[in-house]
Amino acid sequence: MADDKQASAGTKRVLVLAEGYLADPHHGKTTRGVVDYASFPVVALLDSTYDGDVFKGIPVVDSVTDALAFDPTTAIVGVAPTGGRLPDTLRAHVTASITAGLHVEAGMHEFLADDPELAALARDCGVGLCDLRRPPEGLSVPTGANLELDATVVLTVGSDCAIGKMTIALELHLESLRRGRRSVFVPTGQTGIAIAGWGIAVDAVVADFIAGAVEQLVVDGSALGDLLWVEGQGSLIHPMYSGVTLGLYHGSAPQLLVLCHKAGMDHLEGHARHAIPPLRELVDLHERSALPACPARVAAIALNTSLLDDDEARAAIAAATAETGLPADDPVRFGAERLTDACLGT
């Protein structure tokens, strides 16, 4: 995915540009994903509005100039603002990064490499611009290869957007690796691509080709391992993003689903008119929405209990199990063992 001028994985040292969003778990989710799961070192975070000197043990700086003391090679735009456009403040930091000789990666809908000013500056400074959301050439509709894989495919689905579907897939993938499985995390969004170094951002693909793009991902993933954890996007019940969700579901042709839900939420964030159905109804909806040629079942419920204290979280987990009859847990808070057992049949 990256420009051939990018630093190699062994030498990549990252400055994350999080201006104004470091404390925001929603619009700053790319920053948090890279900090928590990337294999390369994150040496500094840039947010002049953040009230603190460190975040998760990483130095926070006010400017690209200050960050250079930590010897970064690459700047990653760590925010996902509504609409996928680069805010003016972040554009200034991107310009400063290029001028300082840093490669830049971004997951905006607005591609940096298509911006004449930034592209010319990058050429002059000899650095690469990598647009993580740019779809590859040659995408088309599915061929049926997704139905012939010699691999178990598990897709994370959700009751809403931005509730942790990528995080759950990564946690279950990492637990599977600890158990010695040939496990693969399959990235379908800009943050997952930034973490893993490959993938396709399916929300930037022409609608007719979403399922074909995801088929390509699971076919590629099956060459790397026999247990694929596919990063979910959107929600089947979301009034804006359900189309991406369904294309991703049918393109990945999973045998198993992990249903993700943010405990304490009864309607879609920002959409008070759209109530979230009970978990039992969501299980039924997702199982009925599978391709007839590849039935899928919900193997487990993954709860995001970040709004609750420990006792409330445990009560919510128990209630989810009682309602659905399925194993439930918060793998970030309490560990991924139980949900991994449910998916692997152990």
Task: Report on this structure.
- With 346 residues, the protein is an alpha/beta fold.
- It is 34% helix and 19% strand.
- It is built from twelve helices and 15 strands.
- It has helices at 29-37, 64-67, 88-99, 116-125, 165-178, 190-196, 210-222, 242-252, 279-288, 310-324, 331-334, 337-344; strands at 14-17, 42-46, 54-55, 58-61, 74-77, 103-106, 129-131, 152-158, 183-186, 227-230, 256-262, 267-268, 271-275, 297-304, 328-329.
- The strands form three sheets. It has a seven-stranded mixed beta sheet, with helices on both faces.
- Helix 1 runs parallel beside helix 6 (190-196), helix 3 runs parallel beside helix 4 and helix 7 runs parallel beside helix 8 (242-252).
- It starts with 13 loop residues before the first strand and ends with a helix.
Task: List the SSEs and their pairings.
Blueprint: E1 14-17, H1 29-37, E2 42-46, E3 54-55, E4 58-61, H2 64-67, E5 74-77, H3 88-99, E6 103-106, H4 116-125, E7 129-131, E8 152-158, H5 165-178, E9 183-186, H6 190-196, H7 210-222, E10 227-230, H8 242-252, E11 256-262, E12 267-268, E13 271-275, H9 279-288, E14 297-304, H10 310-324, E15 328-329, H11 331-334, H12 337-344
Helix pairs in contact: 1-6, 3-4, 7-8
